[in-house]
Amino acid sequence: MLGTLRGALWVPDWPVAAAIASSLAAPEEAVAVCDSRVRAASPAARRKGVRRGDTRRRALSLVPDLTIIPRDDDRDSRVFAGVLDAIDDHVASTVILRPGLVTFGASAPARLAGGLDALAASLISSVASQAEESQVGYGCGLLTSVLAARESRHVPAEETASFLAPFPISAALTVAGTERVRREWDETIDVLSSLGITTIGQFSALEHSQIASRFGLAGTILWRLCHGADHAVIQTTAPAAEIAVRRHVEAIAHEEQAAFLAKELADELAEKLATRMLVCGQLAVQAQFADGGERSRTWSVDGVNSARDITDRVRWQISGWLDSRHAHPLGELIHLELTAADLAPAGTRQTTLWGDRQRGREQAQRSVLRIQGMLGDSAVQSVRLTGGRCPDAAAQFENWHAVQERAESDRPWVGAVPKPWPSVVFPNPPRVMLACHCGGGLYVDASIQLACVGCAEPRPAILVLAPMPGRSDSDRPDSSQAHAACYYSRPVRVWNYAGPWSISGRWWASDAYRRAYLQVGVEGPAALIYRSGTNWFLEGIYS
Amino acid sequence: MNHAQRLAHARDVLHRAETASGLSRTEDKQGWQTPQALTPVLPTLTPGIVAIEGSTTILLAIAGHASAQGAWIALVGLPLIGWGAAAEHGLDLTRTAHIPSPGARAPDVLTALADGFDIIVAGELALTVRDRRALAQRVRTRGTAILSTDWPTASAVLRVEGGEPSGYDAGIGHLKAIRYTVSSGSARTSCLWTADGLVDAPRMLRAVS
Fold it and tell me: Where is the DNA polymerase Y-family little finger domain (chain A) (predicted)?
């Protein structure tokens, strides 16, 4: 029944340690990491009586100057990656129970390190180099090792039962892998305590068959753990960590020098990825320049880990930055850091069996990255259709990212401008004027009918582009206006028209609008115009 | 047979199976299919440069049809595209990059795009005659097609005329179809752009007085 010899490394109050490592709090302060309840408290806060699970209000009443830091699971995992790196130097495979608590098979690494105590000492000193305090313990089975780590001791196999016996059963919750398992165990422990069984000793004295028939699988697992058995925990690999390489350099101003640096760092990063058999999904390049400026850019790279691919991207990026130096003086490059994130095991990705006949995502991605290096991130955009009632609100632009799947909104919008939609749409609609056959200006009256200021029988006859207002366009040339002028450089005759329809859009958002749309057939391509307030605007052209 | 040969053989078999079952349609002829209504003037879209003068709709229809077949498409220098219309033409936005204003570096941008995209849809760009010649050479070797609104030395030129809307009268109804006449050299065809896509135009009936 006894499991293998396992070690556990525990960093006390990890959420607090992570917050301190992220410079959110000072080490000596009374700190608590809370959501609605206290998740972890620093020693200073604990001395004043703050306990895990206290309400925030109670914690504040105990320690009025308590520094409260909101809980952030991402931060916890991210900072823990550094600790994991330190552990990796001594232990090959670790199981992360949660950020701050790791277990590993102890026998082999201990042989390598020359004994359990030597292993513990080198682990603790490595983790201390990451400025974290940790405790290491050994024991047979998962639960034993974790509880041993809390006391920094080695529990020999024969003492396992006597070591575990005095703990309350709730101590087993620390090894619950997921929130769901934890809830199940919580319920089991609740029932047990109402039956008068509170310690692990009492619990493990019960017969297995009784436990199994009353509590099912959850009870069985708990019972086996309390006997010092191993249990496969769900997370068996490291969380998505990051691998980074960085280099301080003498000031680099030339692209060629930068290319060498890029090659060197890329080789190093590729080497690191290769030894861990990983490929990265994201590559972040971060650079510091002599005048203190910083630039960083993250690229999504599809399962890339060859040095050549990384070099190319970094080289384009740096030369882009050094090139834009003329516009924004950044000075010379003095520090470069490459971070590979979104890691996945290598070999899980393969090219299609029948080959890539047409060009695919990767080639497209590569050209886009080159262009982004030349013109900046925002130069290449992805378009997403969000749907909407009028053509100019239907699309959203984001900086380019090639995504696998995207949910398109394909449902009909009630009361939308009827399709087909214009093939040219002006993001900044130019102002137009619509004149009646009598010469008067046309507008849309309260009953959504065309009305004329001059006569009683409104009929549009002339469409003319309003002259540019002088003030706004002198500093920002407007391509919409210029393009519209190509089509309607002079007043055009209106042959026919449809509408107006009233469309009220985006009423759920702050940029709500209400417009009356009119399709007008004119000399040249037909136009879609709308009345908003006291003006007509040209929304699009059916070119 | 070594591994490489066996893989090549396997690919060949799959390739034939795909073609026989009609899964892939672009196998026999090179290039991308064009909308049915435009086949008289442009049977397929092959690597090279096609200028389409006079209509953004026709430009989008050809690009959208190819995109629906799986092409990666980049739109360069076309800041005023109606994306709703583009999607109706079949443009798959997950495989589309949009570079609204490449500015003075347009030649570099087009060169980079020619390496990675199947079709480049280009608007008005700052290109010299030399740039255009170099690009024309490059896209032919890379197997990329450029659809341009403005390319004096294009290998094929489609002229689009018309654009008469129909479907409404004096405020009643709404725009249902736009009629275009597309000509290329001596070939000529008429088509209608409707909410269902680009369709062959019915013969225009003239009143005889």
Answer: 252-353
